[in-house]
């Protein structure tokens, strides 16, 4: 059976755990060579080992433009081009509106919005015409989850980006889409208390958390030629949470 990403070169930011790591594994299995990034070298090395082959780890923080420049210099030297960019790196914190600080706002917008924008912008010279850009959104962007306002707004900004980029990049036939997970069983989620988890699960029509692999398969669809006529969309992988 032919592999969906045979000979493709992909970049996944925030590839050391959760959805990023699961997606890297799926992309490699489907024939891609994958670059992953992470802020911590130890976790990055472990992720590279877990993925096994056809993978390079590049340490860096998407909120730092110098790190992004170094990342793309590395990609350019090693492979000279990219076919797929999955801007997955992101941070989330619960803080109610009356307690929001400048630091909280800046942290979330610097990583989730600014980091994603420049991850994509700086990839464009390497990204092949006909390539695929995927952003990691969230159901939070369309649901009013208590104390999650700044995070939700940062993810809504990503939804807006792909609409514009679909137009900006149409002459290069580059497709831009958002995959928006609902609550997923990741290390990030597991740091919440059991009663918080139970409350979250009660809001999901399918009655369970999603698995990172389930988001990875949706990202694979958006990365591959299976979605050749799909651009500008938000694909929810949320067990129905945002849909009813």
User: Mean pLDDT across all residues, rounded?
Assistant: 97
Helix tally equals 8
Indicate the proportion of strand residues: 15-25%
Order of helices and strands: EHEHEHEHEHEHHHE
* Outline: globular
Derived structural class: alpha/beta
DSSP helix fraction: 40-55%
Rg of Cα set? 17 Å
Instruction: State the distance separating the first and last CA atoms.
Output: 37 Å
Largest sheet, strands/sense/barrel: 7 strands, parallel
User: Which regions are unreliable across 5 or more consecutive residues at pLDDT < 50?
Assistant: none
- Strand ordering within the main sheet: 3-2-1-4-5-6-7
Assembly category: single chain
Number of strands: 7
Summarize the SSE layout with pairings.
Blueprint: E1 9-12, H1 18-29, E2 33-38, H2 41-51, E3 55-59, H3 65-78, E4 82-87, H4 102-123, E5 127-136, H5 149-168, E6 175-181, H6 187-190, H7 194-201, H8 212-223, E7 234-237
Parallel strand pairs: 1-2, 1-4, 2-3, 4-5, 5-6, 6-7
Summarize the structure.
This protein is 42% helix and 17% strand. By secondary structure, the chain is of the alpha/beta class.
Structure in words:
With 244 residues, the protein is α/β, with parallel strands linked by helices. It contains 8 helices and 7 strands; from the N terminus they run E-H-E-H-E-H-E-H-E-H-E-H-H-H-E. It has helices at 18-29, 41-51, 65-78, 102-123, 149-168, 187-190, 194-201, 212-223, and strands spanning 9-12, 33-38, 55-59, 82-87, 127-136, 175-181, 234-237. A 7-stranded parallel β-sheet has the order 3-2-1-4-5-6-7, sandwiched between helices. The chain is globular and about 45 Å long.
